[in-house]
Amino acid sequence: MVADNLDRKAIDEDNKGFLKKLMTARKKIPLRTVLIVPFVLQIFGTVSLVGYLSFKNSQNAVDTVISELRNEISQHIKLHLEVFLKSPNLINKNNDKSLRIGLLDINQPDEIAQKFWQQKQVFKNVNVIYFGNENGGYVGVDTTNEITTTRNFQAGQILIYNTGNTGKRYGIPELSQPNYDARVRPWYKKTKNKKRSQWSDIYTYSDGSDIVIAATRPFYRNAKFEGVLAADLSLEQISKYLRTLKVGKTGKTFIIERNGLLVGSSSNEKISYKKDKKIERLNASNSTSPLISESTQFLKKEFGDLNNIKKTHQLEFDIKNKRQYLQVTTYNDEYGLDWLIVVAIPEADFMAQINENQRNTILLCLLPLITSIIVCIITARRISQPISRLNEAVKDITGGNWKGTESVQGSRIDEVGELATSFNSMSHELHESFEYLEEKNEELERLDKLKDEFLANTSHELRTPLNGMIGIAESVVDGATGEITPLQHKNLSMIAGSGHRLLELVNDILDFAKLKNQGIELQQKPVGIYSLVDVVLAFSQSLVGGKNLKLINSVPDNLPLAYADEHRLEQILFNIIGNSIKFTESGKVEVFAKEDKDQLTITILDTGIGIPPEKHEKIFESFEQADGSTSREYGGTGLGLAVTKQLVKLHGGKIWVESQVGKGSTFSFTLPIASAASNQNKIQNNSENRNTQESNLPNIISKKSRKTTLQKVKANSITSISTNSAEESEENISDNSKYHILIVDDEPVNLQVLNNHLSLHKYRVTQALSGKEALKAVENEDKFDLVLLDIMMPKMSGYKVCAALREKYPAHQLPVVMLTAKNQVTDIVTGFKFGANDYLTKPFRKEELLTRIKSHIKLSQTSKSYGRFVPHEYLKFLSKESIIDVELGDHVSKEMAVMFSDIRSFTTLSESMTPQENFDFVNNYLRQVSPVIRDNTGFIVKYLGDGMMAVFPKGADDAVAAGIGKLKKVEEQNIQRIEQGLLPIKVGIGVHFGHMMVGMVGETARMQGDAFSDNVNLTARLESLTKFYGVSLVISEQALEHLSNPEKYQMRFLDRVIVKGRSEPIAIYEILDGELAEIRDLKLQTLSDFENGLENYRCGDCDKAKQYFEKVLAVNKEDKAAALYLERVEELQCNGIPQDWSGVWTMTKK
Fold it and tell me: pTM for the full model?
């Protein structure tokens, strides 16, 4: 029967091969195309090449011209700036010299003003020339040639005089600013502090009429500072000059400072604007000119910061897919100017004409191209038309349409006519052959379909009752229903053994059928041979029984990984090792492995009965054994080695045997090494294009471990065989009572089987007959440690139940093992996609079930234990599924909130306690406050003794809420401590928001989480400030800015400080919500006086500030912050207020 089936399959394959050839013929290139395309391609290629070379040469020429143009314009601008900016410093130098040699008297403002007026007539480009003295006096000549001076040449009323044509003031002055003081003006203060000539910051006049820059020079007489000479330049003059430059059609030139603010621009927009009654300068990134704004943004992106531009750069970038040419040139002078000159030119300004010519060329070339195509089509048609008729007839035959194909019309061309006659004869013969083959094919397809349906139905129908039969029998043998007699024990063991034997036969037949039809699809990945052999030998130990036989694993533990399907490789090893044990009565079965070039060679050696040389090849054939007598003595179907050979072949390896009768056998096979073969095998597997989605991965461990039961059944007696998983110690079994398992199956018999097995091993079991009942149990009952879940259930499948569980419980927290009578790859893969941890094929081996349950519970418990060291929230933050995925250096860099907290005076507390008491105290404290962090979507990066560092990826709101919650927990803990006669504890908490990097640091053998950035260090400083100011919770101004609703918190401004290690001040605030009610009420009661004290303190009014802080302390004498400010005020009264006083306090300690 098998031979007949194989013959039919061969005929079918031949037919399919012929049809495949015919189909391939249809994909060949038509003759007409062969005649037309090469000629057209030559013309088209020539035209395209000429056009392309022309375009590239034009583009290269444009690149050169634009490069030279950018450079030339930049140099023109640079030269103009040197000339333009020279005048103010020349005026200041001249006036300084006049004052030094006595030509001008510093105490005669009229004389100085007349000198300035004369200079103003010469230097038309200068806006204002002026001088300020140490008395706050001011004198100058403005743009309208009017003289501006202060009364009595000292701080006070500004007077504006007309000058006429003589430069002398006359008439009644116009009154301007009443309290003008030159000493507080930015240009004066900056020059006095720097003590050298320099440029002021760019600023606008108070009325917004112009934006200017001042050249300033300090004036010293007899080494004594007397005042500042200055001259203003209008930056509008720079913009006017830039507008005169021709930069293509739409090119732009502009000058910017390093902060991105415009100095001048060739566009018509103003470089300053009024906002909220203030004059603001325009940032180039916000320019209304797209070319200017996009150029500035590109420079910032290209260099990271404009301060990083140190030399001239010629660059290119795109705006809406249109290329722009850009040159940025630095401009610096000896007086401190640091500007960037930018020239931006669109490519379209120069390429427009070139592109137009290119289009014309293409249009002119299309005409001869179209003419050539028409001529070629006519010529090709005359040649190819007769052949096309034959081609159409062949296509009809291929499609099964024989009508008219046996009388194809010939042609006047002799060769074509003869071809048509031969074709008609061939077509007739083929027609008859195909009709016969189609009848046979239909019959074979019907038989093959019946066979596949029979195998599938038989598999499913046999597995389900077998599961119940074997499970009930084994549970009764184990004492699930009480003690049984030896005869009952023997009979039940024979029932279980027969069931397992039947299951083996079903699996072997299915594997053989699938291999024959190429229906097995490998799931290859890197596999460790040493550990896999260990597992197989451990499960095979039960097959040894009472034999004097050793199973030895001699595989090197440093052997490279194999690229293989782990389950199929287990099946190969189980087949060969099982055969070796079966045919070996004493001695050993030893497994070796070695690396040979790009493959591994695995060898299984035994000291068994041996195989005759003439049988070495035959044993790998289906239904064959080395000797006919062995099938009766040892059993088996003769399929094991046939399946093994096909599986090795699927892996791209080969298998062979070396044996001597009476001495033993050595089976060897090869596998590819993972590093050398994985990519190649992936490509090969894809190219094989196996057309099936019903290949399966039977549970090899389950299949082979069931042989342990078969070994229990002997002809004369039953031998009890123990395994590690079956005979657990009483201590281990009693430990199982703390584990709770949910079993879900719609078959009561299956539930009973599982309940018997698990109850005997003291597991707590809950049963559910449906998916809905299971989900309800998970929701209502205590937490489960594992779920055994059947797939095929009415209304709600196991897949849907697993998906619902995974919405709440990750795989490492609640393992799910699926039970199924279906073992197709698609079913198993679907289970894994829905979140299953493992699967077992019904009927399953009891020992395997218990071993897998124990393994998954242990893995789950281990994962939970790891979570105490590296929280699952931390893993999720690092985008890692498991602790094993974490590597040194893994990190996330983003903006987030960070918190530091610490117990106040812990060192003093710890000195009064023993080490054990210290541990108990710290652990009790951390146990109380740590959950608050997690409850507010944060996670603890690390503990710092009695302190901790935590980050909050979602923002500052969570961090502040966690800080308040932590203080509430401390308050509850203090109530208990006071009741126990212990002193209450106080904690300090600092919260900041900013960019930081959180990840894993250390070395390969020891890692821990940590966070790095200047913002992390600053947060630690903020926490230390809580002790200094006597408060509990401090947040930075950055944290306050990122609160979504800051009004809901009770807070007060605390200070502006410069902490150690930083140069910029930071504002800090105290959050009062977590304080004790009486302390919070007192601080809120005195909040108004505290804020008034701070305001006067910042303004330098020490007397008023002192009064307010004393009022605060009169109500709340424990307010350490108010007491601290009172000390500062008294210190300022004694030592005097510094001239640059701004209310910022510099911390000298951490």
Answer: 0.38
